[in-house]
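Entry 14. Ran structure prediction on the chain below.
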Amino acid sequence: MINYISNIDTIYILVDIEDYEENCRELIQLLMDRRERAKLNDKDNLQHRELLSINDMTFQILPNSCKGYAFILKNDDYELKISQYKSKIKSFYPIQVRISSEMLWGEGISNAWSFIYNWIAETFGNILDNKVCRLDICTHVSDIDFTSNYDKVYKGKFKKTQVFHTGKDINCLSFGSRKGKNIYCRIYNKTLEVEETKKKSWFRNLWLDNNLNFRNVWNVEFEIKSELLRRYNISSVLDVTNSLKDIWQFCTKEWLIKIDRTNSRVERCKVNSKWIEIQKCYDNFKSKKLIEKEKQYLIDAEILIPNIVGSITSYSARKNNLKIKDVFDELMKKTEKYLLNKDTNFENEVNKKQKILNTIKKGDNKNG
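Output, structure tokens:
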């Protein structure tokens, strides 16, 4: 038996709103005004994030737009792309939501979707429909060899294979094309990614809790596009959650299969025993909280310490000061002066980041 943990890692959802332009006229005007303010600050090269708080959620509004969407709002949990007008193309909905990996691992798909669904309904009006336009599902598993003889042991419906290295070691295999409208798969060294990027370091605790060898965790991840979902009549978030077992089995039993190369003819080779177990990883999947958001932030905060220490010691070396207390006293004064020149202070700057991270507890926000 293999030890594994599976989850939806990212999901993109289109949302249709009743009488969108009529009901959202004032909100759209507000977004236009705040986007223009963000553009001005961006031109001035200020390290400024234009924050927008609506119905108890805070987002950064970006100065740019993208194809079909005039406004982009984002925080650590969600990214929303919002149209200025309702498109005449019926399949193009005015709102696109991306739920972050951190939110999905922290809350599970059901809670993560419920939170933003209710916020959208309260902010924009009655929701007519939702449909998933991209789904990333994955399984983390340890101590399995995915790369030996990679060019001979995988078969399926993909047309393209790529190999990526760290030094002489293979760290990732990809199957299919990301530009395609079907499926794209990556099998990669997740331990290495976490170590190199210093992001999502909370995965280590999650792996330990599920008896994975945190030193050698690999991620089997399928990026599934809307065309495939529609082909199998999977549209809404509810459709997706009800179909995860079928989706995963299609991906691992038809689209990509790892075999034991015991015969020159691929069709006569048996499916690899470890891969058979991977095929079952969503058989009993339940949407649930896998790691608390508070723990995510706490662990990621601890990861910042080496960088902070490195910067402070470099500063101290240049100042020829070996006394840590003197250095911190000096840094505090210079930080206060720096922020004062920017017409702000430490509390305000921390408060802004708390809003983006949604880490403010009730009663803690003194600035309102």
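The chain has twelve helices and 13 strands. Will compare against last week's run tomorrow.
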